[in-house]
Amino acid sequence: MSGFVQLALGGQMVPRAALQSARAWGRIVRRDYTEADETGALPLGSIARVHRGVVTGRNDYFVMTKARARALGLERSVRPVVTSAEEVLHANGTLRRDPTTRVLLCPPELHELPQRDREALLDYIKAGEAQGVHQTYVASHRSPWWRPQVKGAPPIVATYMARQAPAFALNPEGLLILNVMHGIYPMVPLDAHQLAELAALLNRMRESYRGHGRVYHGGLEKFEPREMERLILKPDNSRILAMLCDA
């Protein structure tokens, strides 16, 4: 095997050893990086954006059970949220609310709440300030500190750090996600059936994605959002991929 690699026709010859030691190029040289070189194949990032879930800064304050939210009078100030990758791994491809689903403090503007609910929220905000929640790094860098920055419920949710390939699940009930998961947001309009096809295709291909993230001691593999966008979707008689290629 040659000790040099030519990155492109007419391009510079680069020592193979140097590329193998580099994070970005090593996988290409070792031939374990799948390129979208098949007809109809394309990277996930060409059709969707991947974003982290919500960063609260203090989950023990912002995340609670539905019963606790009800007791505090915060039912109008919270939204259902997925809090662990295990929920995705055990979702069998589709996330659903159940009695154990937790909620995230994600209130609307104060003037949008009825007086009783507004007073309950203000009491909870005061309790948080008494605990110093507003002084934590994340909370202190947003305004107001008590409203986490939410992109919106992702149509598809993905695990991104585990000792197994990433798993994907539909999110038809619009659950928010914490930053222990990634959200996949298609850039083209997809109906429920098309979203289901895309999620199913990702899950069928999930084992092929092993080794394309950052592998840590003990076999833990992590996919940053841009790394997940580089995952390749290949034709497997799925109509959704053909449709997306033409979009």
Description of the structure:
The protein has 247 residues and is of the alpha+beta class. The strands form 5 sheets. A 4-stranded antiparallel beta sheet has the order 4-12-8-10. The chain is elongated. The chain contains 10 helices and 15 strands. About 6% of the residues have low confidence. The chain folds into 2 domains: 108 residues, Adenine-n6-DNA-methyltransferase TaqI, Chain A, domain 2 (Alpha-Beta Complex); 85 residues, no CATH class.
SSE order and pairing:
Layout: E1 4-6, E2 13-15, H1 16-20, H2 23-29, E3 42-43, E4 48-52, H3 59-62, E5 63-64, H4 66-71, E6 78-82, H5 85-89, E7 102-105, H6 115-130, H7 137-140, E8 156-159, E9 161-162, E10 168-170, E11 176-177, E12 181-186, H8 192-205, E13 214-215, E14 221-222, H9 225-229, E15 232-233, H10 239-246
Parallel strand pairs: 6-11
Antiparallel strand pairs: 1-2, 3-15, 4-12, 5-7, 6-7, 8-10, 8-12, 9-14, 13-14
Instruction: Please provide the count of β strands.
Output: 15
Q: Which class of secondary structure composition applies to the elements?
A: alpha+beta
Query: Could you say what the CATH architecture of the largest domain is?
Result: Alpha-Beta Complex
Distance between the termini: 41 Å
Element-level helix/strand string:
EEHHEEHEHEHEHHEEEEEHEEHEH
Mean pLDDT: 85
* Tally of structural domains: 2
CATH class of the largest domain: Alpha Beta
Supply Rg.
Answer: 22 Å
**Which range does the strand content fall in?**
15-25%
Low-confidence stretches: 21-34
Shape: elongated
Q: Major sheet, described briefly?
A: 4 strands, antiparallel
The number of helices is 10
Strand order of the largest sheet: 4-12-8-10
Helix content bin: 25-40%
